[in-house]
Write a structure and sequence with these properties.
Helix content: 25-40%
InterPro entries: Aldo-Keto_reductase, NAD(P)_OxRdtase_dom_sf, NADP_OxRdtase_dom
Pfam families: Aldo_ket_red
Strand order of the largest sheet: 3-4-5-6-7-8-9
CATH architecture: Alpha-Beta Barrel
Keywords: Oxidoreductase
CATH superfamily: NADP-dependent oxidoreductase domain
GO molecular function, one term: oxidoreductase activity
Shape: globular
Largest sheet: 7 strands, parallel
Amino acid sequence: MTTTRLGDLIVSPIGFGCMALSHVYGGTTDEAARATLGAAVDAGITFLDTSDVYGKPREGASRPAGTNEEMLAPFLAKRRDEVQLATKFGITAPRDGTDATAKRTDGRPEYARSACDASLARLGVETIDLYYHHRPDPDMPIEETVGAMAELIEAGKIRHIGLSEVTSEELRRAHAVHPIAALQSEWSLWSRDVEGRVVPACAELGVGFVPYSPLGRGFLTGTLTKEQVAGDFRGGTSRMGEAWDANQKIVEIVAEVARRHDATNAQVALAWLLHRAAQMGVSAVPIPGSRKPERALENLGAVDLRLDADDMTQLDSIRSLVEGSRNIVNNPTWISSGRE
């Protein structure tokens, strides 16, 4: 298995998004989740991405759930040395459908310190390899947040700093305080706004890019039904709600390319992303997630899939066909494109 760099952090070329192992896309057990992770790591996926906000909140919880991190702890107790572990802090509102326009983030230095200690305890580890600020706090200069994260490196609690859904300007300000190893944002065949400013800034500064939802929350795979997504938050988004039927033409394009290569839609979507990142001069590590071990193994096939110029041209046409926003809340500033 080849490796990729996110700054100075060496990881597998495809990562694993652990959010999918919690209740957000449907039920699973902790034991089944850890079995999926075991199969993924056995196959060569070593970069695991979680967050303190992932997982089902306990009744009455007013802070991040932490239950996805707790699920990981028994797995890490056995296989910590085999993986690079990333987690995040900063989203403070429970995932319960409350007012999306209300303040939902906390970037205060004291909160960064307390959130890190809480994650370390839940995960059962001494050090986090990559620690992200999950969303910028509009009331806290990003320089102060990153300064506190740099102190966590000095304390030996984290190894590298990451940011999520920041603008190019926010990234530059943060990077001036301390080198940023990776920026995480949504990037896929149907979410390409970051190519305008954010990805070029990463390439210029030597910051790695971690695309989340690289399979369009499963839509691009062609394996979902409208009934499936109606049961979770995806059905409430414009792309996978009212524009579901209109966006099927996107799936058809991906499927046509997949048939030519005897590949799956997921492999084509990931291979496109790796190819596009290389074109733009940035090191990218997509983090698709799955509750099924066979899907995780399938995703690795994208690393060896070679798309030619005609494939890329056909796939690039998707950009102009997408209906609906990538934003999952009503607040446009929740994602970087709403602040650029």
